Amino acid sequence: MAARIILIVLVALIALGGIGETYSNFSEHKDYIDTIVTLAIEDTSWLKASNKDDLYIYFGRMFNSELTEELVEETWPYFENPSDMYHNAIVEKTKTMVIGNSAYTIASIELYNTSFVEPILEATGTGVFRLTFNNNLWRIVSMDFTWNYLDNE
After folding, report:
1. What is the pTM of this model?
2. What's the rounded Cα separation, in Å, for the pair 46 and 23?
3. What is the DSSP letter of 136?
4. How far is CA 9 from its chain centroid?
5. From CA 106, how far away is CA 117, in angstroms rounded?
6. What region does 114 belong to: left with phi over 0, alpha with psi -120 to 50, or beta?
7. Is the pLDDT assigned to residue 69 strictly greater than 80?
């Protein structure tokens, strides 16, 4: 639902001409934003963390402090009761728009089940990310996903 509201607002702003470049080199900012979003989806190096401090450092590279705290608390149980991770997500494409010191990125994502010899596409989805620019850094402050699971039988 939140993704639809953000999408409607973005479309309305584009139609009304309300989105303007507020940074001298927009393409550099866009590349950096897209890199952060892609890392947030694809990078699995957080699985190598040995303690909560490692997770804070890892997530703090991409997320604001509130979301970092939430992610550490949600992922730490994985380390307390380890299990195998059989999924890998890949970003197919992104679309980023900047409004003031906020950026909104919509990412097309594919989710693969990697428990088989050949990975199987299990779902396609959309991620909507909101980032803010503070202290010369872009950080993700919210994210929402919608998944369409495929019938692979």
Report:
1. 0.81
2. 32
3. T
4. 20
5. 31
6. alpha
7. yes
